[in-house]
Amino acid sequence: MTPTPQSDRPRPVSAGRGAFYRLPVDTTGSAREAEAHGRAEERLRRQRGVLRPFGLVVIAAVAIGAVNGHPALGVHGEGLGVLLVVVVFAAALAWAVRGSFPERSMTVQAVVIGVMGACGVALVALQPQGATELAGGAAVWMAVVRLPFTLGAALAVALTVGLDLALAVGGGSAAAVLAATLLCALLALVAYFIKQARASQTRTELLLAQLEDAREEQLRTAAIAERGRIATELHDVLAHSLSAAAIQLQGARKLLEHEHVGPQVGAAIERSAELVRDGLQNARQAVGALRGDPLPGIDQLDSLVSTFRRDTNTEVTLTIEGDARPLPEDASLALYRAAQEALTNIARYAPGAATTVLLRYEGSRTSLTVEDRVDPARAGEGLPGLGGGNGLSGLRERVERTGGTVQAGPTADGWRVELEVPT
After folding, report:
1. At what angle do helices 174-234 and 263-290 cross, to 10 degrees?
2. Distance between CA atoms of 11 and 24, rounded to whole angstroms?
3. pLDDT at residue number 21
4. Does the pLDDT of residue 356 top 90, yes or no?
5. Cβ-count burial of 385 within 10 angstroms (0-12 exposed, 13-18 middle, 19+ buried)?
6. Tens-digit pLDDT profile for residues 122-152
7. Which residues pair with residue 367 across a beta bridge?
């Protein structure tokens, strides 16, 4: 639903007893509340559309009653007065039943309805023997339905008193005065209950929307609390274990310096220390994500590549093709984690391999390609026994959850990982 400018929206009014109902719009409410307001507005438009033909019926009935009343319609004297009053009443009621009338200011609506009522009183005064009370009754109905309760009730009472006085002055019997009073009272009550039913239905829908929002917020709060608990456990277990491993590796490095062990063992320990540091950093990122911290994204890809180049002394280049644009959070995270996993595997299985990272923005999709080319002279220098072997499968699951695809496999002189995500 297209938002309506604030200046064009009906003003919110108290929903208490007797309040005037004009579909208040809370621009700070949730999407569910906005939908509830939209349904109420659409329902009100349909109801007005159904009732609009009755306004035309009332115009026709008043005109027929004026034609058959006495004095009859004419072009001079009292007949001319009756004709003018009927024309003004018909014009006012025709305007009041138009779909755009409720969007007019309250002053305009009150004036138009007051003109209708005045025409009804004038018809009764000019044709005391005719069936002209219907015009005043229509004005009473409109006053209660369209105007705030206090103003509408005051105008309805004033019109009823005016009709009674006109009938009494015109020689109407007490029974006729009582009948006119009862007709206006009945129309006012029916209009009031219709308006209250509309307001009650809308309030119920708004309360249900707020209840759903509160329930959703409660579930979200519970999820955050649970993630916080898991984050604490992860921090206490992983961070402690990895920190202890890093300390042990540091001690092993110093011991090797004294024992003068071969360089291959030292390199393995150094690489193990790097992996532990990376694992510790990733564990902290995971804990932060569980606690609601911002997650890394594709906008940090350049920093990731630079860090990898510096830490591993590897020739790696980053190329970006297409016009960069913001990506959905899950897609951006998937691309970042894919690059991170691919670079980690290169450091593990093909250290020193020349690497290219290509990020391409295309139409409704964004792709990432990480490819390495192993120097034959350094083949077999990796540490394939490290790691759990689940990195690629976990990456595939993460990308597929975003609706993307992953392809990974060997090339003539290395390994390539390609993935696409919808954007």
Report:
1. 160
2. 6
3. 38
4. yes
5. exposed
6. 888 887 765 567 888 888 988 998 888 889 8
7. 360, 420
pLDDT at residue 121 in the model: 87
- Give me the residues paired with residue 222 across strands: none
What distance in Å separates the CA atoms of residue 67 and residue 86, rounded to the nearest whole number? 10
Quick one: tokens of 359? 């990020």
- The tokens describing 22, both together, are 């004009």
**Residue corresponding to tokens 């060997």:** 410
CB 253 within 8 A of CB 266: yes
Instruction: Answer yes or no: are the C-beta atoms of 106 and 152 closer than 8 Å.
Output: no
Q: What is the DSSP string of 137-174?
A: HHHHHHHHHHS-HHHHHHHHHHHHHHHHHHHHHTT--H
Peptide bond connecting 71 to the previous residue in cis, omega within 30 degrees of 0: yes
Worst-scoring range by mean pLDDT, 1-10, 255-264, 281-290, 300-309? 1-10
What is d(CA 247, CA 235) in angstroms, rounded to the nearest whole number?
17
**Are the C-beta atoms of 12 and 141 separated by less than 8 Å?**
no
Q: Is the separation of the CB atoms in 356 and 343 below 8 Å?
A: no
What is the radius of gyration, based on Cα positions, of the chain? 40
pLDDT score recorded for residue 119: 87
Give the other-Cβ count within 10 Å of 153's Cβ. 16
Amino acid identity for residue 55 in this structure:
G
Looking from the CA of 179 toward its CB, the CA atoms found within 13 Å total 10
Give CA–CA dist 49/39, Å, rounded.
15
Tell me which residue of 79, 93, 185 sits closest to 146, measured CA to CA: 93
Q: Spell out the domains of the chain, with CATH numbers in brackets.
A: 10-213 (no CATH), 294-423 (3.30.565.10)
- Whether residue 380 has pLDDT greater than 60: no
Is residue 59 classed as helix, strand or coil in its secondary structure? helix
- Judge whether 180 and 136 are in contact, CB under 8 Å: yes
Collapse the DSSP code of 106 into the 3-class scheme (helix H, G, I; strand E, B; otherwise coil) and give the result. helix
When pLDDT is averaged across residues 155-181 and rounded to a whole number, the result is: 86
- 24, 152, 226, 387 from 192: Cα distances, Å: 18, 10, 50, 74
pTM flag (> 0.70): no
Residue with tokens 């906005």: 34
Token digits for 131?
Answer: 């069936």
Phi and psi, residue 402, nearest 5°: -90, 0
For residue 304, which of 349, 359, 352, 242 has the smallest C-alpha distance? 359
Nearest to 362 by CA among 418, 321, 328, 317: 321
Cα dihedral 142/148/154/160 (nearest 10)? 10
In the predicted structure, residue 351 carries a pLDDT above the cut 70: yes
